[in-house]
Amino acid sequence: MLAEHVLAAFRFALGEDRVFADGGTCALYASDETPKSVLPDAVLFPASHDDVVALMRIAHAHGVAITPRGAGSGNVGGALPAPGSVVVSFECMRRVLEFIPGDRLVVVEPGVVTEDIDRLARSAGLFYPPDPGSGAYSRIGGNLAMNAAGPRAVKYGVTRDWVLGLVAVTGSGETVRTGCRTTKGVTGLDLTRLLVGSEGTLALITEATLKLAPVPDTVATLRLCFASPRAALDAVGRVMQQPVLPSALEFMDARAIDAIRPTGAADDLAPGTRALLMVEADGAHEDVPRQIDALQAALAGEGLLEMRSGFERADIVRLWAARKSLSHAVKKIAPLKINEDVVVPVSRLADFVDFVDATAQSQHLPIVSFGHAGNGNLHVNLMVHPDDADEMARARAALDALMARVLALGGTLSGEHGIGTEKRRFVPMEIDAPTLEIMRAIKRVFDPRGLLNPGKLFPD
Amino acid sequence: MLAEHVLAAFRFALGEDRVFADGGTCALYASDETPKSVLPDAVLFPASHDDVVALMRIAHAHGVAITPRGAGSGNVGGALPAPGSVVVSFECMRRVLEFIPGDRLVVVEPGVVTEDIDRLARSAGLFYPPDPGSGAYSRIGGNLAMNAAGPRAVKYGVTRDWVLGLVAVTGSGETVRTGCRTTKGVTGLDLTRLLVGSEGTLALITEATLKLAPVPDTVATLRLCFASPRAALDAVGRVMQQPVLPSALEFMDARAIDAIRPTGAADDLAPGTRALLMVEADGAHEDVPRQIDALQAALAGEGLLEMRSGFERADIVRLWAARKSLSHAVKKIAPLKINEDVVVPVSRLADFVDFVDATAQSQHLPIVSFGHAGNGNLHVNLMVHPDDADEMARARAALDALMARVLALGGTLSGEHGIGTEKRRFVPMEIDAPTLEIMRAIKRVFDPRGLLNPGKLFPD
Predict the structure, then answer these.
(1) Considering only CB atoms, which chain B residues are within 8 Å of A217?
(2) Residue B127: how many CA atoms within 13 Å on its side-chain side?
(3) Could you tell me the residue ranges of all domains in chain A?
């Protein structure tokens, strides 16, 4: 339990109304999207960079662990409070500090909602490309911590690719200023990209300078029904070997389609559909039809049952209906979704999906797969009943087998969700001991007392 | 001087034919493109990752400083031997270890020539986008160390954006394996991008997994003559505020044009030309004419004297003649070129070029400016006589003023050349003390004895 004099120090530094230690508030900040819950000792709501410096100095002086938090929309436990820690919520730091369309940049505090940045950018003919599924409510600070991404990553890259510079507070309360405001810059070590994706273990980001892109004139969508996952993923391979980069290249496997059948969202799919691809192209009005032609040519092949295109908003929404209904439908299969987020080289996707199917059969588990196929990024969801010990043991065995196969295929454990608390045990399978030791030593540089988001990212 | 038993240890580990300590070899490796020269104590030519581990362990055990070297084509002293150091040349590590067009990746050793990677990629319809001016002879290891870039960066980004993973050897001889083989991956801290641009101060890169892109069908070029630098740079600003990204957007100022007049390369410029822009568009055959139309529309404006376009190879070469003749022509102005590589936000470029002109006048110095205007990256060349003490003092004063102005405008010291030995004194103007201390501490993590490229990147 947090000592009363430490709580008093936080109150003195931040103000009474920014420090909560009551059971109700602590309960509200006890969990993220993982099915776990740990009560923090208190919740702090800093309003400025200076507040963050002040609270971190107090935490450092008294050895108080800090769990930084955006919207709590992560699903790997990144914002799950470490036992005995104080949550630092960035909700109140939501100012846009600068917006300079002429230099295609915006400077924001970490509590700004991701889609609000995009909306602001669009007011000046620009956009913010990273589009995590949680973008309507996730905070940019959480996106930065986890290096969030979404469907547009296949064309536009991930959060890390859109960050020019950061201001952050280390575990000892020092301010670091990284990067620059220009699209090129090689002065000093690249701390900016080191902090992005470090899951709050190195420093608390208090300000981010983000790069923006000109908004494309228009978007068009293709929805393709295939007779098998392999046929669909072979088509993905063909798309990624020609020059037109789609702005989304999403895959749903047979179980995902089965999951949405009760909702009616699969009614307009071609009979016999066992895999679905959603493909988008964006760009200038004049270019998009030609891009769509090129993508259609690459996508056509054995096992393609039907291809529909949409160029108008209403048609596009209709085509996406099957994919958009998935998240909700999957939850009906079983009470608990163990949500993996693996990546394999695009050329190995079909082999990996076969392996997932074989594992689902051998372990008698429903496994629903879908994801960002153009990046080789597959969300593999094991649907289980947490009170069924035998099923949970099979799920664990299945996970171990899946992760081993991912790595054997030259893949990586996580494409966009991160490691958090949930995937730490797999990390040593991917990162060897000397490299992990370098990462731990860098952690000690930023956070000598080990106070920042303990129990995340690094394996025990 | 290197102790005989250390030399013997290197010879035993690498073989006699990979260790040279004779005056002739040492003289060949005493300099890079800076006008300086420091004799190393020996030159090592490792042939494999294991050789690099072996030599680094010996260096670590005996406290021998290492100066890593690609082609020595850098111009900030990055490969200039530290006094009493041993040069490690990666020339003999030039194997392509893997080339997988289906996954758009190539795995190379550091000694592969940059353009050879591009050539290999093109054999399969792909290309390697970073295009430093030295690409015909620079080694990819040097590009990685300095985070090299070139004209295409305005559309395609810099070296760092095309690296998926690395194998490297730390200052204590440990092997680190960073990153992944896929276009997404968030497992662990991002050591890959930390090592890129670290100028050989953290680890010796022995293997790099590089991302490739589909090669565009075609390229077209515009050459634009303007009545003033400000008119040209205003046009740059307009280009960067519309959606069509050019694949090059290069600027030459009035003094650069004056410099090429004696060569005849300026003969076909419009009368009264005081600034030149070179603009390229690349993409699909069908798209490029429309892109050129859009770029022309954005470029047109006050002060534009003439705009010529080229769609065929011969025309394109003719249009680039003025720009390509520049490097050679500039050298005739004075014996020494002090080559700065600053970046300012695109919206401040015209102000900065005005300041450069004012500085050139007040310090009575010829200053030739040209560069990658779409990134705000300007090569500012102070042409001086090194034996003229008064001129050198004025050059130093001019440099100090220029750097201060760059930073005041929100810019950065170097866009692509790096810091090396030559710009270290300016670093504390851009990076504050606590952030520099974090960088130094990270350096100690990788290189506890401070043996890797001492005297580079970090200020004293």
Answers:
(1) 243
(2) 14
(3) 4-89, 96-214, 218-328, 334-422
Cβ neighbours for B356, distance < 8 A, ≥ 6 positions apart:
B253, B367, B369, B378, B380, B402
A174, A184, A293: which to substitute to probe chain B, counting the most B Cβ within 10 Å?
A: A184
Per-residue pLDDT of B184-232, as tens digits, reads: 999 999 999 999 999 999 999 999 999 999 999 999 999 999 999 999 9
B:48-67 residues touching chain A, CB 8 A cutoff: none
Query: What fold is seen in the domain A218-328?
Result: Alpha-Beta Plaits (3.30.70)
Q: Which of A184, A283, A431 sits opposite B375 (nearest CB)?
A: A184
- Residue A1 pLDDT: 81
Fold of B4-89: 3.30.43
Distance from CA of A390 to the nearest CA of B (A): 29
pTM: 0.97
What is the per-residue pLDDT across B19-78, written as a single tens digit (0 to 9) for each? 999 999 999 999 999 999 999 999 999 999 999 999 999 999 999 999 999 999 999 999
DSSP secondary structure of B233-262: HHHHHHHTTSS---SEEEEE-HHHHHHHGG
Contact B182 A427 (CB under 8 A): no
CATH code of domain B334-422: 3.30.70.2740
Nearest chain B CA: its distance from A157 CA (Å): 8
pLDDT at B56: 98
CA A37/CA B290 separation, integer angstroms: 56
> Which ipTM did the prediction report?
0.97
- 3 state SS of B338: strand
Q: Which of B347, B412, B445 is opposite residue A445, by nearest beta carbon?
A: B445
pLDDT in tens, A27-44: 999 999 999 999 999 999
Q: What tokens does B434 get?
A: 């606590």
Query: Which top CATH class is A96-214?
Result: alpha beta
CA distances from A339 to A250, A327, A349, B102 (A): 17, 11, 18, 28
Q: Is A190 in contact with B160 (Cβ distance < 8 A)?
A: yes
- The pLDDT mean for chain B works out to 97
pLDDT of residue B315 exceeding 90: yes
Equal fold, B218-328 vs B334-422: yes
Handedness of CA A342, A348, A351, A354 (dihedral sign): positive
pLDDT value of position A344: 98
> pLDDT tens-digit profile of B229-267?
999 999 999 999 888 999 999 999 999 999 999 999 999
Please give the distance of CA A429 from its chain centroid, rounded to a whole number: 21
Q: Per the CB < 8 Å rule, is B435 touching A125? A: no
- What chain A residue is nearest to B436 in terms of C-alpha separation? A188
Looking at the complex, does the CB of residue B219 fall below 8 Å from at least one CB of chain A?
A: no
